Amino acid sequence: MLCCMPGVAFVPALLVSWSSAAFIISYAIAVLAGHVEPLVPYISDTGTKPPESGVFGFMINISALLAAITMYIRYLLIEKQNETSHFVRSSCNMFTLCIGLMGCTGMGIVATFQELAVPSVHDIGALVAFGSGVVYITLQSIISYKSCPRWNTYFVCHIRMAISVISCIAFIPMIVFASKISMTKIDWTPGEKDYTYHIMSAICEWMVAFGFIFFFLTYIRDFQGFSLRISTEIHED
Predict the structure, then answer these.
(1) Which residue ranges in the chain fall short of pLDDT 70?
(2) Where is the secretion signal located (predicted)?
(3) Distance CA 130, CA 145 (A)
(4) CA distance 88 to 146
(5) What is the pLDDT of residues 41-91, one digit of tens each?
(6) d(CA 48, CA 65)
């Protein structure tokens, strides 16, 4: 089905499908193995112990790569549209891409350095991934409004901005509640110390993560009318 999509719409569709599967599969394995409680664990908690750690690391690294490709195509698309409309500065478009790629790098760090193995590096990667991701989708929402009505409908812009606002609102308490947790562990049980902070922070984390997924889902229609061509030139001496 992905291969039948026009243009390069299959890229964000694959990103959304793969990332959703990464979260769900690692969560299911971790719960069935008894490594985490079913009630809202951290996303990273579902990829800390084997065998789910291998699945989580592999799939999240692929997600980071797909996200980087999607962001780059989005950058090229805006550059092409900007040739005739001039609705955004090229430097702003490049800055937005760089922020997005920082988020992809953070995802790679999260996938490579497990939460209990190297917690400080893992936490830095998570902060970069979520922080850069929130900034990226907010900037893209603003750019979308600037491209209206020629390249985007106001309905799509409203959806993107709503996702961005919700993600920003969820990001702040996610960090605040996580900073109040005094221990690094994955086997949480109700009633113990810092459990409430853990639950609230984890809920916000899942909201931000799926906010990213739903945001990239809105790229599919834009990418349908855009195709990439590779040209080669042969020079004869």
Answers:
(1) 1-6, 228-237
(2) none
(3) 23
(4) 7
(5) 999 999 989 999 999 999 999 999 999 999 999 999 999 999 888 899 999
(6) 21
Residue 229 maps to a domain: no
Residue 231 lies in a domain: no
Structural domain contains residue 1: no
Dist CA 72 CA 87 (whole Å): 18
- Map residue 219 onto helix, strand or coil: helix
> Is the whole-model pTM more than 0.85?
yes
| CB-side neighbour CA atoms (13 Å) of 161 | 12
Instruction: Report the distance separating Cα 111 and Cα 159, nearest Å.
Output: 29
Q: How many domains does the chain have?
A: 1
Name the residue range of residue 141's domain.
9-224
Instruction: Enumerate the H helices of 86-194 as residue ranges.
Output: 90-112, 119-146, 154-179
- Is 47 within 8 Å of 55 (Cβ atoms)? yes
Contact partners, residue 92, CB within 8 Å, separation at least 6: 139, 143
CA 140 – CA 186 distance, rounded (Å): 34
Residue 160 CA: distances (Å) to CA of 95, 175, 188, 196, 219: 19, 23, 34, 30, 10
Q: Is residue 2 part of a domain?
A: no
> Whose CA is closest to 93, among 74, 70, 118, 112?
74
